[in-house]
Amino acid sequence: MDLLHAAQPYLPLTLLVFLAGFVDAIAGGGGLITLPAYLAHGLPPALLLGTNKLSSSMGTLVAAVKFIRETRFKADFLFIMVFLAALGALLGARTITLVPPEMIRYLLLVTLPPAAIFLVSQRAFGLVDTSAAFTPNALLARAGLISFFISFYDGLLGPGTGTFLALAFARVCRFDLLRSTALAKVLNLTSNIASLAAFLYFGRVNIALGLAMGAAGMAGNYAGSHLALKKGTWVIRPMLLLICAALLIKIVWDMLK
Q1: What is the C-alpha R_g of the chain?
Q2: What is the pLDDT of residues 69-84, one digit of tens each?
Q3: In the chain, domain spans
Q4: How many other CB atoms sit within 10 Å of the CB of residue 250?
């Protein structure tokens, strides 16, 4: 009884982190839920990003493993993508000290509406994998540029990285949305771990809370990735559209405050 009473204040946060993991496994954007949830729970702002990175990294690991097991990517291709993602994230984190984040928000205001309109208008988008139309080197170059530059953005600002990766891989490399989402998970995990290492080094993580919420995030990611693998593009596409709209609303709201 005492244990149940002690756990009650954590129940809303646990449910929200589970929901964030579920959504994030399908289309990215889980941080739109977890960051406000941690703040509402009373987590000090200094520990916010680091604690969120710990729990989200645990959840993303589950989704990444489940997706990659079910999709077809060669090990050397994945290694190059991970290396470029890590490099981009590190450079982005360094650049954020030099570039005002407001510039990136204005860029997102320009890019998000066309992405949402594209998803609505192109009903066949991401249904079929036609990446074989490219030579291996051409596909590697396209995917490599996406991995580097969007991971650079992740280190620079972050919101919606998984969504942008999935959309870019589907549009530029012509993977279907299922394979695009799988690759996005691996690269998003890479940048999350790099960021988490820095936060741990500077003591900016509530480790106990992060581990506990990480368990909820892992459960949510498992359920979300299971649904995405079962239903494929039919569930990923509308979720991507929803996340694009949510990101746009959040960015406009933050700029108006």
Answers
A1: 18
A2: 877 788 899 999 999 9
A3: 10-256
A4: 19
